[in-house]
Design goal:
The chain is mainly β. It has strands at 3-6, 10-12, 22-30, 36-37, 53-58, 62-70, 81-88, 92-98, 111-121, 127-135. Helices cover 0% and strands 50% of the residues.
Length: 137
Amino acid sequence: MKEAVITAIETSAKPADVAGRATWLAGCECGECGRKYFPKRGFCTECGSQHAMRDARIEGPGKLYSHSIIHIAPKTFKVPYAVGYVDLPGDVRVLGQIVGWEDGPLTQGMEMQIGYAPIAEEPDGSVRESFVFQPKR
């Protein structure tokens, strides 16, 4: 299975083909206490270690902690859209857009998968892509 590794928001002329790919976030982990983070950071806010951070895969599925439906946004985003905090394994809470929310109600604690999708269209026609969360129904 191909993998889609997500490190940041990307802009491209053509959306990526990520169908059938396993998706995970490129985060980091403290070598001293084991705390994981996304996005990556230079030091651990849990134990204070400044030189022990190493690359780590942040994988799902996770659980929806909270969400909001956005109705007013910058012109590049189509409204309405959903955003939410998702608790991923390793005590990592990540904020991201939610796709597929129109298919049924979002509820606290529901299982969410990590995905990758277009999230906005720039004035020049290029597409902004990012990691997203999707309800696992």
